[in-house]
Amino acid sequence: xxxxxxxxxxxxxxxxxxxxxxxxxxxxxxxxxxxxxxxxxxxxxxxxxxxxxxxxxxxxxxxxxxxxxxxxxxxxxxxxxxxxxxxxxxxxxxxxxxxxxxxxxxxxxxxxxxxxxxxxxxxxxxxxxxxxxxxxxxxxxxxxxxxxxxxxxxxxxxxxxxxxxxxxxxxxxxxxxxxxxxxxxxxxxxxxxxxxxxxxxxxxxxxxxxxxxxxx
Length: 216
Prior knowledge:
Layout: E1 2-6, H1 15-32, E2 35-40, H2 45-49, E3 56-58, H3 75-81, E4 85-88, H4 97-109, E5 113-118, H5 121-128, E6 134-137, H6 149-152, H7 154-163, E7 169-172, H8 178-187, E8 191-194, H9 196-199, H10 204-212
Helix pairs in contact: 1-10, 5-7
């Protein structure tokens, strides 16, 4: 199972605290033999990637070539900083379809991984045509909530699986418990994309351990 922790811009996922959280994620990954990656802010990629061995992703990347551009995060920059890839089209940073296509293409050209997010199965199907490495289904209305998509709308997962042409599917939005994870994987998801349930937890190590531990 794949588990990606999105640190977002939460205080607990920023700067020195982000590094502390990254080390917690690494410790759980090693202890539980779990496939854990983290998506961090662009300003934290270099610091974190130099101190942990688990994969580090950017939370967003811009479809621009190197040159006279100001205030953007380009694929070459996140790669040089130590990221192995990026989230694309997160619901909190949505992109036009044409931009999604070109962003995935740019990432692939540099040997970087693309994790493409979508709010609906129909959008997932459109994005899947661009051949991202992973896709994540995240209904916006459930993001940051206490009810997971696997519990509230399990049909969204099964509908997405039929439309992504074999690309590994992650389940996001409202993931908090082992039950949420088990239900998602039973439906066919190959992993989870989680944020506040771990990042803002009083004991993130305990919560993450429960989410990824193979035995219940």
